[in-house]
């Protein structure tokens, strides 16, 4: 699959895919005889994983470390699991913060007419 097709399929720009390859997050992307990238299903699975982890808020640095460990082999499974657990904990904390913000926002909306005009302006 050409880079433009992968870009469209996963909603990641071709420049970002090249960047991921350049810094080692994506590896072993084969090239056709003309030198153009020709992503395999294995490469596409890696792209999908990377997109998921970035969507989950994983930093480039952590993602690079994870992928470096992945490419080293199965003996790094424990380290990789710890990275994923840390990201899960980060997401869990963020969800908690968002739930608190949602509760406060909902309260403000539900009681909006009860507040003074000065407070409404401050809280807008």
TrEMBL record:
Name listed for the protein in its UniProt record: DNA-binding transcriptional MerR regulator
Record has Cell wall biogenesis/degradation as a keyword: no
Coiled coil stretches, renumbered: 81-115
Keywords on record: Coiled coil, DNA-binding
SUPFAM superfamilies assigned: Putative DNA-binding domain
Pfam name, any one: MerR_1
GO terms, molecular function: DNA binding; DNA-binding transcription factor activity
PROSITE patterns: HTH_MERR_2 (PS50937)
Superkingdom of this protein's organism: Bacteria
Start and end residues of each HTH merR-type domain: 1-69
């Amino acid at each position: 699959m050409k880079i433009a097709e992968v870009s469209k399929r996963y909603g990641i720009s071709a420049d970002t895919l090249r960047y991921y390859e350049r810094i080692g997050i994506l590896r072993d992307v084969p090239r056709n005889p003309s030198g153009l990238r020709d992503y395999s299903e294995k490469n596409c699975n890696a792209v999908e994983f990377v997109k998921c982890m970035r969507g989950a808020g994983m930093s480039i640095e952590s993602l690079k470390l994870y992928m470096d460990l992945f490419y080293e082999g199965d003996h790094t499974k424990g380290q990789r699991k710890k990275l994923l657990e840390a990201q899960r904990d980060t997401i869990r904390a963020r969800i908690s913060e968002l739930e608190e913000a949602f509760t406060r926002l909902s309260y403000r909306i539900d009681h909006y007419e009860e507040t003074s005009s000065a407070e409404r302006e401050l809280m807008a």
